Amino acid sequence: MDEAAGLQAFRERFLQGAVFEEHILEFLPLIASFLPASQRTQTNESRAAWRAYVATEAGAVHAQCLARREADPDAVITLEEARIIVGPLLDPTRTAPRLSGQRLAQFWAMLPPTDPDKLEMLAFFLALAARHPAFYEAVRLIASDQLKTGEPLDGVLRSWIGGALQGKKPKGPRGRPKETERDLRIFAAVLVLQHLGFSPTLDDGKDRTPSGCGIVADVLVLSYNAVATVWTDQRGRLRDIGRPP
C-alpha cells in the first residue's frame, strides 16, 4: 500500500467531499482564501454558506479583499481589514468541527471495494493511527467491522490489530486541549493572512513590515514571539502528517 498516495486521496476526497460540505460554514474563513471564486459557490450548500459568511462583517471584508487580490495580486490589504477577517478565527468561543474516528471510518466504509484509493487511504490511516487518536479509533472501527463481517483482512491491518491487542495506543497531542485548540486557530489565521499577502513572520526582526504573526499577536494581546513559535511548531507538525511513525 502507498501511504503517500493515500494522503493525496484523503485530501482530495475527504476534506473536499462530505466533511467539506457538512462543515463548510465553520471552515469558510479559512478555505475561502484558497479556493477560486468559481469554486466557492459550486453547490447549494456552499452557496448558502457563502451568503451567510459575506453577511457578516468579517465575511464582507474578506470577500472584498479576495476580489481585489484576484483582480490585482499586488493589491494591499490594510491592517484593519486583516484584523477584521481573522477576528472570528481567533475567537475562543467559536466552535470548530473536529475529525472523529467514527466519521473517518464511515467515510472509508462507504468506498466500494473496487475503489483504487481504498487501500491507499487505509495505509494513510494506519500511519497516523500511531500518533493521532481520531485515526486510531477509525482503524479500530474498520478492523472491528471487517472481523464481524468476515471480510479478508489486509496483512498490514492484521498486524495493526495484533499491536492494538497488546495495548499500543497513540499518546495524542501534547499540551492542554485549550492550548492545542488555540494554537490551531493561530495557525489558521496566519495561513489566511499569508494568502492575503502578509509575510507570516518578520525577517529576523529586521523587516518592520507587519507580519501575519504580528497581526494575530495584536488581536490576541500576545507577544509576537509567542505567536511565531506557535506558527513554526504547527507548520512542523503539519509536515509530519503522513510520515512513517
Please characterize this protein's 3D structure:
By secondary structure, this protein is mainly α. The chain is built from 13 helices and no strands. Helix 5 (57-71) crosses helix 6 (79-86), helix 8 crosses helix 9 and helix 11 packs across helix 12 (212-220).
Chart the SSEs and their pairings.
Elements (H helix, E strand, L loop, with lengths): L2 H13 L2 H5 L1 H8 L12 H11 L2 H15 L7 H8 L14 H10 L7 H12 L3 H17 L5 H11 L11 H19 L16 H9 L3 H17 L5
Helix pairs in contact: 1-8, 3-4, 4-5, 5-6, 7-9, 8-9, 11-12, 11-13, 12-13
In short:
By secondary structure, the chain is mostly helical.
Task: Kindly list the characteristics that best describe this protein.
disordered C terminus; 245 residues; 13 helices; single chain; mainly alpha
Strand content: under 5%
* SSE order, one letter for each helix or strand: HHHHHHHHHHHHH
Radius of gyration: 20 Å
**What is the approximate shape?**
elongated
Low-confidence stretches: 18-25, 173-178, 241-245
